[in-house]
Design brief:
Length: about 280
């Protein structure tokens, strides 16, 4: 599970605020519930079998200060997609009982910068990663995840958050499979936003890259004050389907009988570790 507000070119500080971070529960059928606490009482959550969920993990981000190192790790540097932001832990903190992740405009040297030379210019993949070898950092953000600390198969996963929707913001709450290379390990984007659009995605290994089931909803379909409020993004996942919700409205659904990785769908031509990453 990853909380990943990325910022391309925000003109001032951008914030993604989570009201609490994560709860997880199990029912008698060992179905996990991952949820961020909500400020208002909600009906008892039940699995598709009708059995009630039982909480197995949560992070409410109480108090102030850094997040719990036992639960969260951070990505560092220029990481993916040719994005402009440098990821660093300093941009995420508990503030008044909420997780605050900031995208900041700042200018500082890239500590990993390697000046071009005849030797490294001819190295394999030199051009592919050139975007990560910028001399200076102009934007920073934070990307935190539970990799190596917590992982669950099936259940309910929730986050209650308020996101920044200004031009250049790319907040996301997403999951990757714990085994194998992307995309054969599977990806679920429970919450993602960019270009004035909310996305609800499921991906697995196709013949030439990821195969996507993506639903997009333009921001102008919501009330004008939508971005000023907290909202609840949720995934319900069992052995049959993945269902993605926003404020209890079903936004996308994936039948798991069809999420079969194509042969050799991992990066580098590696065979998928699992034929179906969501089983």
């Amino acid at each position: 599970m990853t909380l990943d507000p990325a910022t391309w070119n925000a003109s001032r500080t951008a914030r993604c605020i989570a009201d609490s971070a994560s709860r997880i529960a199990t029912s008698a059928a060992l179905i996990a519930l991952f949820a961020i606490a909500c400020a208002h009482p909600r009906p008892e959550a039940r699995a598709s079998t009708g059995e009630p969920y039982a909480l197995v993990w949560s992070d409410e981000f109480t108090g102030d200060g850094p997040v719990a190192a036992a639960d969260w790790s951070f990505e560092n540097g220029f990481v993916r997609n040719g994005e402009l932001q440098w990821y660093q832990p300093d941009n995420a903190a508990r503030v008044n009982g909420m997780l605050v992740i900031e995208g900041r405009r700042e200018h500082k040297p890239n500590p990993r910068y390697v000046a071009p030379s005849a030797t490294n210019a001819s190295a394999p993949n030199a051009n592919r990663r050139a975007w990560a070898n910028r001399e200076f950092i102009d934007y920073t953000s934070a990307s935190m995840n539970t990799r190596g600390r917590h992982a669950w198969l099936y259940g309910r996963f929730e986050v209650r958050a308020r996101i920044d929707v200004r031009t250049g913001s790319w907040p996301a709450f997403w999951t990757l499979g714990a085994r194998g290379p992307w995309p054969a390990n599977g990806e679920i984007d429970i919450m993602e936003f960019y270009d004035d659009t909310l996305l609800f995605n499921v991906a697995w290994g196709g013949a030439s890259g990821a195969k996507w089931n993506s639903k997009k909803v333009r921001l102008d379909r919501f009330p004008a004050d939508w971005a000023t409020k907290f909202h609840v993004w949720r995934m319900d996942w069992d052995e049959r389907a993945i269902r993605l919700f926003l404020d209890d409205s079903l936004m996308n659904e994936q039948d798991l009988s069809t999420t079969i990785n194509a042969p050799r769908s991992g990066f580098g031509g590696a065979a998928p570790v699992m034929d179906n990453p969501f089983h």
